[in-house]
């Protein structure tokens, strides 16, 4: 439960969602292997630099999908419902 609360707190600044998720996975795997010795604090620091590019790619992907939804919402063509389905599937 503490690990989930720490993940939620780490996700409050949107930029650190990737680092928090990587740290959550890392600590959970260490807990499964019974190797947990003060790794909660250290894992966020170790994985922060690696997760920044992944987080930026994720934000770019979400931005493109949001733009697609916005453009499709203003569209008057009949095919927009099919395109909505495609965007929802990708999302």
Nutshell version of this structure?
This protein has four helices and no strands. It has helices spanning 2-10, 17-32, 39-74, 80-90. The longest helix has 36 residues, at 39-74.
Mind explaining what this structure looks like?
By secondary structure, the chain is mostly helical. It is 79% helix and 0% strand. It has four helices and no strands. α1 (2-10) runs antiparallel to α2 (17-32), α2 crosses α3 (39-74) and α3 (39-74) runs antiparallel to α4 (80-90). It is elongated, with a radius of gyration of 18 Å. The two termini are 28 Å apart.
List keywords for this structure.
single chain; 91 residues; mainly alpha
Write the layout of secondary structure elements.
Blueprint: H1 2-10, H2 17-32, H3 39-74, H4 80-90
Helix pairs in contact: 1-2, 2-3, 3-4
Overall radius of gyration = 18 Å
Beta-strand level of the residues, as a percent range? under 5%
Oligomer: single chain
Total helix count?
4
The biggest sheet, with number of strands, parallel, antiparallel or mixed sense and barrel status, is:
none
Beta-strand segment tally: 0
Shape: elongated
Q: What is the terminal-to-terminal distance?
A: 28 Å
| Proportion of helical residues | over 70%
SSE series: HHHH
Integer average pLDDT: 78
Given helix and strand content, the structural type is mainly alpha
Low-confidence stretches: none
